[in-house]
Structures are given as structure tokens and as C-alpha cells.
């Protein structure tokens, strides 16, 4: 891995390079996505099935794009019992974590008898997207569906493409979705899936919100449909940032960096350290691992494009750079990891200590692995129960309560030149 001195210029160059991976930078695909979305909006099932047949190479029809109960039952017979047990345990951990995020409605009564409060209700329906086709991610299926289930969403739809040329969804994906508590599964991917969920078709009723990661066409379709439906975020390629000093094990750090680089050639893997000696050691270990990993071609390209080992003068420099980069995953492997953790403001998820490797969060620990990318951890949060609920304000003033303040409200409204607003209050106290 390339080793570079951390300074203001290198940091600016790297931030610029990373931002080029944002879906917002892929304008050449936006028109294609808009055309697909508009076509699905206008022609419904017919368009969905045409695009699915063309892109996924199987004959999709309105009668076969929904997964049946028989297909789910058959899937269990194709997945080994050990993996089913592991999926169930992971699902329990995820549900247990997200149960703790639930918030309660509340009200309070003022001295004059007026009541104010906030009511929390689940969204009626959600469309969860999970990649399929070339790769499948049952972990993302669990991470999408379970928080929605915990929130109390009544209708949860999973959209995931069938394997090319087969018309069949990977059995592991079906088992994971069933364990998570899905209500419906559609064998549709890409921009056409997002459009179908957003606008609805005869076969696929529309949903209120769409969550989950996907390729550039999925990301841009979510962006195009935002407003018709809510979305969680527009996800970019995966990324990891490790903060480490000489107390860390270079083998652990190298392994963790490569674990994200193998996702795809656009993935980012960055080490921030205050030790050149440690940087050299990690680079050597990364080269050793690379020789024996099955996805070494993808990893090599990822590291060539977006892999960096940055050496700062002090740990303060390192922490400042980490906050500027605002990575999806941040690992802290230092002598005092909890002290460093308190200074990290911008991160999707923080992994503390040598035995909190990032894949632990991907699969098993419980916190959600659908995280903000491309620096959006500065203002976005991980997918969570709040994404699947709505907050409604409650206002119930007594006559005495309104009478005490009505003149102030009327005056406020008149200052905004909204006389009907003022009149709405005034008429209640005219003789």
C-alpha cells in the first residue's frame, strides 16, 4: 500500500478523490435512470417486466415476479442447517440492539390545562432493497428488514434481483428475509425496482419509504424518486478508516483494511497512524495477505484507486483527519482507544479495540451495517428504528391557555402580514 505524509494538501487531495465516488458524480447515468423511472411510472408492470427480462436475462411476467411461499419453503431445504442457525442468531442480535432504539410517545400538561406532546407511529409500508444478481448479501437483508419490523411497520417488501438467467432468488436471501419477518418479496432489481416501489404497479403496491444499498442505478433511482417516497440515504461504495498507533498489531490492521477493499474496485481503505515504522509494517502485511486472498484482483484495484496509509505527526493530526474524512467504518486500535473514540465526531460506526474487527459489525454484533458513506457521516446516521417511524406533534390548548397568549399570536401573525391567521385566533375572543 502507498504510504504518504499526512498534511493539508494530501488530505485535500484524498477528500477530493473520495468524493468522486459519490453517486452525485455519475451524471452520465442520470438520464437513463430518469427514463426507466418515468417508464415504470407510466406503464407499471409491463415496464418492470421488460426491464427485468432485459437486464436479468429471464422471462419476467406480472405473474412470476413475486416470490411464493413454496419458493421460500424450498429455499430452506437448500441452505445448510448451521447457516440457518447462524442467521437466526444474528437476527436475534440485530433485533435486540434495535429494540433499544425505540422511543415512546409523550405528553405533558401545562398549569393552565393545555396539553402538548409527541406521538410516534410506524410508517405504514417500507420497501427494502438488497443487492442480488452477481452477489447476494443476506446480512443486508437482515439489517434492512429487522429495524422496520421492530418499529412496527405492517407491510415490508423486499426487492432483490434474481440470479441472471434463472428467475430464482438466492435461497440464502429468501431464508434471511423469512427469518427477518418480511411480508412480500419481489424478484426485481435496479432502477425499475425502486420506481415500482415508489409509484406502485398493479402487482406491486407502492410503499411509503425505500431503504437499503444498491449499485449506481439503484442509488440514482432513489434520488430520482425522493419526494414521492422517503429514502434512508443515497449510498456510495464501502469504506474503512483505521486509526492505529505502534501498540496495534499490523497484521490485524492490514487484514481489516483488505476486508473492505474486497467489496469492489471503488471501495476505500485508509490507515491513519502517527508512526512511519507501523505504516511500513502494515504495508508489508497487506502485501502478504494479498497473495492468498481470492478477490485479490478487486482488492489490488481498490487499493490502487482509493487505498492510503497516511502518517501524521501527532495523534491529534490523525483524529482531525479522521473527522474530515468522516468514514463509513472507523476502527480504533490504539493504546487508549476509548479516549480517541471520544474525539471522533464523524463516523458511521466506530469499532473499538483489536477484537472489534469491522466484519463483526457486518454480520453479527447487532448495530446496523447500512451506514452513511462518502463523508455523509457528518450529517447522516446508520439505518435505525427512527427511519421507520414518524413523529406527530400534539397540541390541545385550553381556553384559558389560549386566552393568555392570543394577543401575542395575533400580533406575530400581523407582523408576517397573515391577517387570516390573526383572525383565526381573534374570533375566539370577540364578544
User: What is the multimeric organization of the chains shown?
Assistant: single chain
* CATH superfamily heading of the largest domain: Nitrogenase molybdenum iron protein domain
Number of strands: 14
- Work out the count of structural domains: 3
| Contiguous uncertain segments of 5+ residues | none
Distance between the termini: 82 Å
Name of the CATH architecture of the largest domain: 3-Layer(aba) Sandwich
**CATH C-level class of the largest domain:** Alpha Beta
Sheet of most strands = 6 strands, parallel
Strand order of the largest sheet: 1-11-10-9-12-13
Nearest-angstrom radius of gyration?
25 Å
Fraction in beta strands: 15-25%
Helix content: 40-55%
User: What fold name stands as the CATH topology of the largest domain?
Assistant: Rossmann fold
Average pLDDT across residues?
95
Structural class: alpha/beta
Estimate the global geometry from the Cα principal axes. Answer: globular
Count up the helices.
Answer: 17
Amino acid at each position: 500500500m502507498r504510504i504518504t505524509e499526512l498534511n493539508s494538501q494530501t488530505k485535500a487531495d484524498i477528500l477530493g478523490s473520495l468524493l468522486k465516488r459519490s453517486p452525485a458524480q455519475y451524471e452520465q447515468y442520470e438520464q437513463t435512470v430518469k427514463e426507466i423511472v418515468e417508464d415504470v411510472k407510466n406503464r407499471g408492470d409491463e415496464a418492470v417486466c421488460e426491464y427485468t427480462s432485459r437486464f436479468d436475462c429471464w422471462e419476467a411476467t406480472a405473474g412470476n415476479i413475486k416470490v411464493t411461499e413454496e419458493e421460500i419453503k424450498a429455499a430452506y431445504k437448500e441452505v445448510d442447517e448451521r447457516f440457518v442457525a447462524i442467521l437466526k442468531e444474528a437476527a436475534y442480535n440485530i433485533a435486540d440492539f434495535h429494540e433499544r432504539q425505540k422511543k415512546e410517545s409523550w405528553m405533558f400538561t401545562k398549569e393552565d390545562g393545555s396539553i402538548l406532546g409527541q406521538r410516534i407511529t410506524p410508517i405504514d409500508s417500507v420497501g427494502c432493497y438488497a443487492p442480488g444478481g452477481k452477489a447476494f448479501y443476506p446480512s443486508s437483508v437482515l439489517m434492512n428488514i429487522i429495524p422496520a419490523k421492530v418499529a412496527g411497520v405492517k407491510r415490508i417488501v423486499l426487492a432483490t434481483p434474481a440470479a441472471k438467467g434463472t428467475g430464482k432468488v438466492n435461497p440464502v436471501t429468501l431464508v434471511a428475509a423469512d427469518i427477518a419477518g418480511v411480508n412480500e418479496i419481489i424478484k426485481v432489481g435496479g432502477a425499475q425496482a425502486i420506481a415500482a416501489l415508489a409509484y406502485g404497479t398493479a402487482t406491486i403496491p407502492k410503499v411509503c419509504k425505500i431503504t437499503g444499498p444498491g449499485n449506481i442505478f439503484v442509488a440514482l433511482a432513489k434520488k430520482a424518486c425522493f419526494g414521492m417516497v422517503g429514502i434512508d440515504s443515497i449510498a456510495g461504495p464501502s469504506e474503512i478508516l483505521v486509526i492505529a498507533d505502534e501498540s496495534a498489531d499490523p497484521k490485524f490492521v492490514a487484514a481489516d483494511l483488505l476486508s473492505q477493499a474486497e467489496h469492489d474496485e471503488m471501495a476505500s481503505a485508509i490507515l491513519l497512524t502517527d508512526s512511519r515504522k507501523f505504516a511500513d509494517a502494515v504495508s508489508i502485511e497487506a502485501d502478504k495477505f494479498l497473495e492468498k486472498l481470492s478477490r485479490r484482483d478487486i482488492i489490488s484495484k481498490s487499493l490502487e484507486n482509493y487505498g492510503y496509509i497516511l502518517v501524521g505527526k501527532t495523534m491529534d493530526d490523525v483524529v482531525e483527519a479522521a473527522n474530515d474524512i468522516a468514514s463509513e467504518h472507523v476502527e480504533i486500535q490504539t493504546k487508549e482507544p476509548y479516549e480517541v473514540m471520544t474525539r471522533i465526531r464523524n463516523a458511521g460506526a466506530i469499532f473499538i479495540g483489536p477484537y472489534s474487527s469491522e466484519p463483526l459489525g457486518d454480520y453479527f454484533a447487532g448495530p446496523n451495517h447500512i451506514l452513511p458513506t462518502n463523508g455523509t457521516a457528518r450529517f447522516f446516521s446508520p439505518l435505525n428504528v427512527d427511519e421507520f417511524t414518524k413523529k406527530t406533534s400534539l397540541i390541545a390548548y385550553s381556553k384559558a391557555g389560549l386566552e393568555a397568549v392570543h394577543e401575542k399570536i395575533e400580533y406575530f401573525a400581523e407582523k408576517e402580514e397573515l391577517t387570516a391567521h390573526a383572525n383565526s385566533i381573534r374570533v375566539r375572543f370577540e364578544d
